[in-house]
Amino acid sequence: MRTVFVTAMKTNENKMKKIVQLVLIVSVLSACTISSHEKITFQTVSSENLETTIPASGQSTLSHLALNEKDLEVRKAAVEKLTLQSSLSHVALNDTDPEIRKLAVNKLTLQSTLSHIAINDNNGEVRVAALKKVTLESTLAHVTLNDPDAEIRKFAVSRVSLQSTLSHVAINDKDFGVRIAALKKVTLESTLAHVALNDPEAEIRKLAASMVSLQSTLSHVALNDKNSEVKRSAIQKLTIESTLEHIALNDPDPEIRKLAVKRME
Question: Once rounded to an integer, what is the mean pLDDT over residues 114-122?
Answer without folding.
Answer: 98
